[in-house]
Specification:
Helix content: 40-55%
Number of domains: 3
CATH class of the largest domain: Alpha Beta
Strand content: 5-15%
Largest sheet: 7 strands, mixed
Shape: rod-shaped
Number of strands: 12
Mean pLDDT: 80
């Protein structure tokens, strides 16, 4: 039994991309669409730069605010400076500290007034905040974000513990720093020397709102990405369903056709589809039907061949067995004549059977050429010899001028068709009868008619005479001199040329048969367009 899977030798692919052929089409469609969405997922890399832009903007804002505060404190009376520091902290949300030249903290807005922010303990946060913080870590890891150090409240609050304050004191310019609060929210600080350069103003803030803004932006991107992924997956599955499922149905039907397990395999034609898959389905269906017809014809031909060979073989065997038992010379001579007739009949049958079996294969391989049909038919009509085993007949020919009617085909095969039809007409023609050969153009077809003056073909027999081994011959031809394949071969050849062959009554009403065949016309400048591909 043939394997269910085609040999690997027939499925070879060039090296380098063989692994892709092992992935189903559905997964490949999904992978391509998901890959496109992965580009959209790159928006998470944008979140880190977006957060840093927010932090930079806040530090610039803090710089402006501390500059105003420093100017206001310079012009304020010493007794009013603490109150000004508290009001400024409440207005900006900053924690303001002032350190003297020795680095000792002289004033703190949190000590003088109400705290403007509170550092949260992450262990006390609710579960949704912890989940959001975990997502922060994941996004930062994916985006390869730079992680700042964590802020720890100093045990002794001096200027020396603030690196930005030390840098500001050394270079005389404002210096900012970015740290993580304990709950991973931004902790921003900016140190600014006061105008007298003996004191340092330090402003800090826990910019928790920046984290909220970034998380809200991340949620929007996640929702868009999730909606896009769901839509893409559904569209991919729909696309895979419209492509893969019909292909699988066609593949299963093709395997059943190849294995031959069912007498009739119905290949889905998908008439509702007008795309390439529908065209493929109908092409495979037509191919399988043609294959089934070819198989049926082969089976029928084999059965007919077996039946036709049995008769002469049985007769030959009986004659040979009789030769060993009969002593009468006259009977032995008669048996020898019968045996010789059977041998000749077998030889004729084998020759015609071989020709009939080769005709399809030869037509599929033989390149067609441009044929001047009028010239070919005129040559055949003029070269018909008289045969000793047939009555004397006359021939008449009527056809178009040369180089006016062209067809595409195999000249030898078409000559064989005409000779078979003329031989058939000669067999049924009376002594002195006339065979007429008529060639004419009809729109996009060329028509050839061969008329005789014989008894004609009864209506009930007009289809049967084109079957293989069907032979109805006149008595003068004798038994077994014809194989019954001539007309069948002629129709097969014309089918291979996209032509047609039939028999009808003569149009003038006289006795006789009229065999007609047609072929598609061709033009000398475009023969390929005149005949469909075989």
């Amino acid at each position: 039994m043939a394997p269910d899977i085609v040999s690997a030798r027939n499925d070879e692919r060039p090296g380098g991309g063989e692994w892709t052929h092992r992935i189903s089409l559905t997964r490949r469609i999904l992978a391509v669409n998901i890959f496109a969405l992965a580009i959209l997922a790159g928006g998470f890399f944008y979140l880190d730069s977006y957060r840093m832009r927010l932090i930079d903007a806040r530090l610039v804002s803090i710089g402006r605010e501390t500059a105003l505060i420093a100017t206001a404190m310079e012009s304020a009376l010493p007794k009013d400076r603490n109150q000004l520091l508290v009001r400024s902290a409440e207005a900006t949300g900053l924690r303001l500290r002032i350190y003297d030249a020795s680095g000792t903290k002289r004033a703190d807005s949190f000590s003088l007034g109400r705290p403007t922010y509170e550092l949260r303990d992450p262990a006390r946060d609710p579960i949704h905040i912890k989940i959001a913080r975990a997502l922060d870590r994941v996004v930062e890891t994916i985006a390869f974000a730079t992680r700042p150090p964590y802020y720890r409240e100093p045990r002794e609050d001096r200027r020396d513990v603030w690196t930005e304050a030390q840098e500001a004191a050394s270079n005389g310019a404002p210096t900012a720093a970015y740290r993580f609060a304990p709950d991973r929210t931004p902790f921003l600080s900016l140190a600014r020397p006061l105008p007298d350069r003996r004191e340092m103003l330090l402003a800090t803030i826990n910019a928790r709102d920046i984290t909220d803004i970034v998380r809200a932006e991340r949620l929007r991107i996640s929702l868009v990405l999730a909606a896009a992924i769901i839509t893409s997956v559904l569209l991919s599955l729909f696309l895979a369903r419209t492509i893969v499922l019909p292909l699988r149905r066609l593949a299963r039907a093709a395997v059943r056709v190849r294995l031959g397990r069912a007498r009739e395999v119905i290949v889905p034609r998908l008439p509702e589809r007008r795309d390439e898959i529908g065209m493929l389905a109908r092409a495979i269906s037509d191919m399988s039907q043609a294959l089934r017809q070819r198989i049926d014809a082969t089976d029928a031909f084999a059965a007919d061949v077996s039946h036709e060979l049995k008769n002469p073989i049985a007769s030959l065997r009986s004659a040979l067995e009789g030769l060993g038992q009969i002593q009468d010379p006259a009977l032995r001579t008669r048996l020898l004549d019968i045996a010789q007739d059977d041998v000749r009949r077998l030889d004729r049958l084998v020759t015609d059977i071989a020709e009939a079996s080769r005709i399809d294969a030869q037509l599929s391989r033989t390149p067609f050429e441009l044929i001047d049909l009028g010239r070919m038919m005129g040559r055949i009509a003029r070269s018909q010899p008289q045969r000793d085993d047939a009555p004397v007949v006359k021939f008449s020919y009527s056809g178009p001028p040369r180089a006016s009617l062209f067809v595409m085909g195999d000249p030898q095969k078409l000559t064989r068709v005409v000779e078979n039809l003329i031989g058939n007409a000669r067999s049924f023609s009376p002594e002195g009868g006339r065979i007429r050969i008529l060639v004419e153009a009809q729109d996009d077809k060329a028509q050839v008619a061969i008329e005789d003056e014989g008894p004609g073909v009864p209506e009930a027999e007009r289809d049967k005479i084109f079957r293989r081994f069907h032979s109805v011959r006149p008595e003068r031809d004798g038994f077994g001199k014809h194989s019954g394949l001539g007309l069948a071969i002629a129709r097969t050849v014309l089918d291979g040329h996209h032509g047609a062959l039939w028999v009808e009554d003569r149009p003038d009403g006289k006795a006789g048969a009229r065999f007609v065949f047609t072929l598609p016309r061709a033009t000398p400048d475009g023969p390929a367009s005149a005949v469909p591909e075989r």
